[in-house]
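> Could you send the DNA (cytosine-5-)-methyltransferase prediction when you get a chance?

Sure thing. Input:
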Amino acid sequence: MSATRPSSELIRVLDLFAGCGGLTEGLHSFEPNDGDGPVFRTVGAVEWNEAAASTYAANFGAGSRRAASGPGPVVHCGDITGWLPDSSLGVIDVVVGGPPCQGFSGLNREKTGAERNSLWQEFIRVVVATRPKVFVIENVDRFVRSPEFADLRARIGEGDLKDYVLVPPSGNWSGGDEVEEARRLLLNAADFGALQARRRAIVIGVRTDAGILPQTFHYPVPTHARPRPGTDTVAALLDAPGLPQWRSASEVLGSPSPTQGVEFPGGRERDLGEPFGTQPGPFRTRELHITRNPEAVSLARYRAIPPEGNRKDLRGRYLCRFEDGSSLIIAKSADYRGDEGQLKPFGAYRVVEAGVASGRSLDVRPSSDQRVPVSSGSPRSIAEMFRVSVHDGGQVRPATIEYLSTPSWDRHDAGSGDVMGRLRLDHPSVTIRTEFFKPEKGRYLHPTEDRPITHYEAAKLQGFPDDFVWHGSKTEIAKQIGNAVPVPLGRAIAGAIYNYLRPKGS
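Output:
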């Protein structure tokens, strides 16, 4: 991504809580229609995690093709508390960042980590010190209902933020309903061409004394529209004239793609010097197509779940293992639990194929040794495994059946339907979180293959290109991917900032 644009024309950015650089990738990949390359140049970044900071530096640092013209950004790998950029960074036009959101997140039921929300104050402190023309806070959707956001709204235009105003996403500068305005701060990445539905709070402030009318700033305009349920493409376009439907996960997951083992390419490790240290890698995005090595019961669960299905489809289903090493997934044809909650393993079954109960019937009957002994080696309760005789036509075969659901999953219809769910090919993916490789954490099973999505697929659903460079362990890179701002959303934010700071005709 080389640039011929003069450095004086570039918009200078400071990225706080930068992670691996999803938002920066969005900014750098935005190009106006003048053919002169990128218009954003990141001059500094702050990230405390060494692996994430290493990934950031590898992609945007000096010598990288994403550094645009001039030197790459100065990457501060460490705590932001009390940190200020060196004067050598020069004028900073834009400050962006996503302060840690654990305390705001709905997944943080114990509210642990809420003390880290004070880091959003560090973001504001840097804004006050650097006086950018624009600042952008990116966070989880609950941020707009938090005391911290209420405090920000109360402070804006006063004291150390007296020269700033928050941009109303509706464009109504005369004041409107605060609840409605807060709702409009939530941008869905799918509306801007991302392959996932991911709502993020995007709070934008502009300086009132920078010689640009704040009222000329406009929030990003959606490029794609969510179709109404049950409508076809034509009807969807009538709902939102001129806008194509949301892009779907099929663009990444629609074609068979053999995985490349269970580990990243071996033997790669680089000493990146202080403060990054020695990190695994580098790995290109296309090299992250690795899978897990699941236990037999986990693999059976994957096999048992139909297209677009989830944990609820495991009810009444068993892994049936025969003594010759072969196995089947079978589904109970009648009640699978008794009045007191006990499993009822005997009776009529149908064989499950591709997650769907087929027309092939079996009869499961007791054997002389019904319960599997503790020495079976299974980590599951022996109350969920049974020795049986399987009657398949005229053939009788001894087998062990192991229940694939759990008492909790059987009891609860409420709660997340995404647990152990398959992604939908004709929809954007669900939000890619940091543990996307664990189907028990959400709808992260491949739409057609019996496995979770890979790091490669998750990165592509986030919008990262094939040549993006990663450093860190499997777990660290997964966190980097899941914590990132979807690149298309970052690109849309870049367009809005560019139109404000570089209006046509200026």
